[in-house]
Structure formats: C-alpha cells, structure tokens
Write a structure and sequence with these properties.
CATH topology of the largest domain: Heat Shock Protein 90
Strand order of the largest sheet: 2-4-5-7-6
Largest sheet: 5 strands, mixed
Oligomer: single chain
Radius of gyration: 20 Å
Number of domains: 2
CATH superfamily of the largest domain: Histidine kinase-like ATPase, C-terminal domain
Distance between the termini: 16 Å
CATH architecture of the largest domain: 2-Layer Sandwich
Structural class: alpha+beta
Order of helices and strands: HHHEHEEHEEHHEE
CATH class of the largest domain: Alpha Beta
Length: 220
C-alpha cells in the first residue's frame, strides 16, 4: 500500500477551527432546522437540508480520517512486539468495540494456549480502525454483531473479523469506508503480515489480519 504524507502546514489547517468549526456549525444548524424547531418545512426544504447536513457530516468525517491517519504515520514508525495471551487480546478488542454501541462481539478461538507475538499498541490501534469501519457499514436490522475468530497455524496467528453489512451498501460506499481501515492495513505491514477485506456474501464482510507469530527485531 502506497503511503502519501500531507505537508504539516496543510494538515494543521485541516485540523484547525478554520474548517472544522464551521462544518460542525452547519451540521448543528441543519439538524435544528430539520427538527422544525424554527418552524415547519416544505418537502423541498427538508430535502435540501438533509443534503446539506449529509455533505457536511461526510466532509467533517473525511477531514477527521485524514488527520487521524496522518498523525499515525508520523509517530508510529517502529514495532516493539511482545507476547500477549489471546484472552488479553480479546479483552482489548471487546473494550474497543464497546465504544461503538450497540455493536457486540462474539468470539471463536481454535487454540488459546499459544501467545501472540505482536506490538500491543499497534494492535489496539488496528482494532479501533476496524471498529470505526464496522460502525459505518453494519446492518442495524439484522443485528450489529461482530464475530472475531482467532487461530494459530504454521507460525502465523490470524484475526478474522466478520461483520453483517448493510444490503444497500454500494461499491462506492464500501470504497470510501475502506479508508477507515488504513491503520489496520498499516499495522499488518509493520508486522510483516497480511491484510485482506472481502465481500464474503451480499450480507457479510470479512476482515483478516495475519501476523507471523515469531519473535522479530523492531522494524523501521
């Protein structure tokens, strides 16, 4: 995956009140008007306000995503792997996902006796990336369950995450939301592992992170 770094002055501008505050205000005022606090709306007025609110939300979300990813590029250049039990990792994953209600986690473990050799900080950030992605694509009507499968095979530990996705999720939508997985992809790269996102069925997505489960020196 090619990494593109944004100049610092431009990154600071994106993260400043110059852009973020007006966008937040637009979202807030559009929401107030849509609730008809200022008076009743015509169908056309409601449609236009919904477009304004949606576009402001998407733009604000995009800026947040760019800023978050760029900060990660700037300071997460090294890995310092250690041994962590699968139970510790599961607990961390569940804790991260709990910040995105109402999603819940179901865990399947093939063998929890072997510790994982990973950088805990990086893995935590990868889980946050996955949870953010899941919060955007999951299907409310069919439940917001995330299934986490962990198994160790031939010196590699695999984290397979299954998500029930919205049926009306277009290819363009999915392409946009994939950018939320940047950190998860970056973490697997830093561990010399592999990352994959697949459309398993029209209703289900799977995200797979595979790490070499052997000690290695910190990487640059």
């Amino acid at each position: 995956m090619e990494t593109i770094e944004i100049p610092r002055f431009l990154l600071d501008y994106f993260d400043s009140m110059t852009i973020r505050t007006p966008l937040t205000s637009i979202q807030g005022y559009a929401d107030v008007l849509l609730k008809e606090i200022a008076g009743p709306l015509t169908d056309d007025q409601r449609r236009y306000l919904e477009i304004i609110k949606h576009n402001a939300e998407q733009l604000n979300k995009h800026f947040s995503l760019v800023i978050h990813n760029q900060h990660y590029i700037a300071w997460e250049q090294y890995t310092f792997p250690g041994q962590y039990s699968v139970r510790e990792i599961i607990s961390d994953f569940e804790d991260v996902v709990s910040h995105f209600p109402p999603m819940k986690v179901t865990v399947e473990i093939s063998d929890d006796s072997l510790p994982a050799w990973v950088d805990e900080r990086h893995l935590h950030n990868a889980f946050g990336s996955i949870a953010e992605f899941a919060s955007q694509v999951y299907d409310n009507d069919r439940g917001s369950e995330i299934v986490l499968k962990i198994f160790d095979k031939s010196g590699f530990i695999t984290f397979a995450v299954e998500i029930n996705k919205r049926e009306n999720l277009s290819k363009n939508d999915l392409s946009y939301y994939e950018s939320f997985l940047f950190i998860a992809q970056r973490v697997t790269e830093l561990h010399n592992g592999n990352f994959a996102l697949k459309n398993e069925t029209p209703e289900k997505l799977s995200i797979t992170l595979v790490f070499p489960n052997i000690p290695k020196l910190p990487s640059r």
